[in-house]
C-alpha cells in the first residue's frame, strides 16, 4: 500500500483578498462617498521559509497588502491565514520593517531591540542578551550603546531589522526597507538580509519598487497589476547566487527583463484604456504610471 505524505500547509495564504476604501465621491455633492478598490481578488500561498518579493506600479496596493498582513487593517472580503489561522490584528508572530526606521530616539540601539521583547514579557537579563545577539547578527556588535542619531541610515535600518527578528516572529514583513539608503549601502544590506534569511529560515515578504532588488532577493517575485491591484503573475527566480557579481550575469539580466516586460505590458494597456476612457468621459482618476524609472527602462532595453 502506498501512502502519500500531505504537503505542509503554507505559512501564509491569501484567499481572494479584496480591499476597498471609502473615499469622497468627486462631483456628487458634499459628503458623498464611494468605494475605492485598492486590492482585488488577491490569492497566493507563501510556503514556510520562502523569501517572496512583491513589485508593482505605484498605487497598486503593495503597502495595503502589507498593512493587511500586519493586521493594521482588515480585508473587505477574503482572508489572510497565517499557519492556517486568520489574521485579525497585529501580533508578535509578525515583525514589520518600514522604509523609515521607526526607532525610538531616546533609546540606545540595544534598548530599541529590547522594545518588542519587553512587550513579550521577556526578563531584563535575557532581553539584553537577545538584543546583543541580534545586533551581532546584523553586524552591529559594538554599537549597542549608540543612540539612533549616532548611527548612519544603514545602521539604523540594521537596528530595525534586529528589533524585528529579536522577538522571533514567524514572518518578517518588509515595506521598501532599503529605499531611503544610498546604492552602496542598499546593496550591502541586501546581502546582509540574504545571509540573515539563510541563517534564520524566516518567511519574508518584501515589498519593493526596484526590479533589480526583487530579482536579487526573491525566490519568487509576485508582480502586481496597476490599480486595482491584482496578482498578475508569480515568477520563480532560478538564479545561481554562488558567484561574485550575480547582478552582472546574463541570467539576472533576462529575469530582470521578463519582470520589466510584465510590468510594462500592464502599464501600456492601462495607459491605453485610460486614454480611451479620458476621451469618452471627463470624470475619473489619473492612472499612475508604472513604477519603472527611465534609467531602468533603458537598462532593460539594452
Ligand atoms: N486609507 C486609505 N483611504 C483611501 N484610499 C487609500 C487608503 N490607503 C491607500 N489608499 C489607496 O489605495 C491605493 C493603494 O495604495 P498603496 O499605498 O497600497 O499603494 P502602493 O502600491 O504601496 O503605492 P506606492 O508604491 O506608491 O507606495 C492607492 O490608490 C491609495 O490612494
Task: Output the keywords.
disordered C terminus, AAA+_ATPase, four-stranded antiparallel sheet, ABC_transporter-like_CS, six-stranded mixed sheet, binds adenosine-5'-triphosphate, globular, alpha/beta, Rossmann fold, 302 residues
Describe the protein in words:
The protein has eight helices and ten strands. It is α/β, with parallel strands linked by helices. The protein folds into two domains: 10-24 and 34-93 and 172-273 and 290-302, Rossmann fold, CATH 3.40.50.300; 102-168, no CATH class. The strands form two sheets. The chain has a six-stranded mixed sheet with strand order 6-7-8-3-9-10, with helices on both faces. Strands 2-1-4-5 form a four-stranded antiparallel sheet, covered by helices on one side. Helix 2 packs across helix 3 (124-137). It is globular, with a radius of gyration of 21 Å. Residues 277-302 have low confidence and may be disordered. Adenosine-5'-triphosphate binds at residues 21, 23, 36, 38, 56, 58-64, 209, 227. This is ABC transporter ATP-binding protein. Residues 271-302 are annotated as: Disordered. Residues 271-283 have a biased composition (Low complexity).
Amino acid at each position: 500500500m502506498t501512502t502519500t505524505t500531505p504537503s505542509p500547509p503554507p505559512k501564509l495564504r491569501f484567499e481572494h483578498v479584496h480591499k476597498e476604501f471609502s473615499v469622497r465621491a468627486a462631483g456628487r455633492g458634499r459628503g458623498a462617498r464611494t468605494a475605492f478598490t485598492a486590492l482585488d481578488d488577491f490569492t497566493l500561498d507563501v510556503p514556510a521559509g520562502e523569501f517572496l518579493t512583491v513589485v508593482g506600479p505605484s498605487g497598486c496596493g503593495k503597502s495595503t497588502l502589507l498593512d493587511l498582513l500586519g493586521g493594521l487593517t482588515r480585508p473587505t472580503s477574503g482572508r489572510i491565514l497565517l499557519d492556517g489561522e486568520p489574521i485579525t490584528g497585529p501580533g508578535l508572530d509578525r515583525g514589520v520593517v518600514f522604509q523609515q526606521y521607526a526607532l525610538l530616539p531616546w533609546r540606545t540601539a540595544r534598548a530599541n531591540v529590547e522594545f518588542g521583547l519587553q512587550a513579550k514579557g521577556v526578563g531584563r537579563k535575557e532581553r539584553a542578551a537577545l538584543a546583543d545577539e541580534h545586533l551581532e547578527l546584523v553586524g552591529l556588535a559594538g554599537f549597542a550603546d549608540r543612540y539612533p542619531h549616532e548611527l548612519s541610515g544603514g545602521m539604523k535600518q540594521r537596528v530595525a531589522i534586529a528589533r524585528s527578528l529579536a522577538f522571533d516572529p514567524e514572518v518578517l514583513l518588509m515595506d521598501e526597507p532599503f529605499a531611503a539608503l544610498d546604492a552602496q549601502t542598499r546593496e550591502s544590506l541586501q546581502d546582509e538580509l540574504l545571509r540573515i534569511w539563510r541563517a534564520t529560515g524566516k518567511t519574508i515578504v518584501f515589498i519593493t519598487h526596484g526590479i533589480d532588488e526583487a530579482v536579487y532577493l526573491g525566490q519568487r517575485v509576485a508582480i502586481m497589476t496597476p490599480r486595482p491591484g491584482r496578482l498578475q503573475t508569480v515568477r520563480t527566480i532560478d538564479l545561481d547566487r554562488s558567484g561574485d557579481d550575480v547582478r552582472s550575469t546574463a541570467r539576472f539580466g533576462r529575469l530582470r527583463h521578463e519582470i520589466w516586460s510584465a510590468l510594462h505590458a500592464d502599464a501600456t494597456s492601462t495607459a491605453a484604456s485610460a486614454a480611451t476612457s479620458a476621451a469618452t468621459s471627463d470624470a475619473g482618476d489619473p492612472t499612475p504610471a508604472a513604477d519603472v524609472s527611465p534609467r531602468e527602462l533603458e537598462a532593460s532595453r539594452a
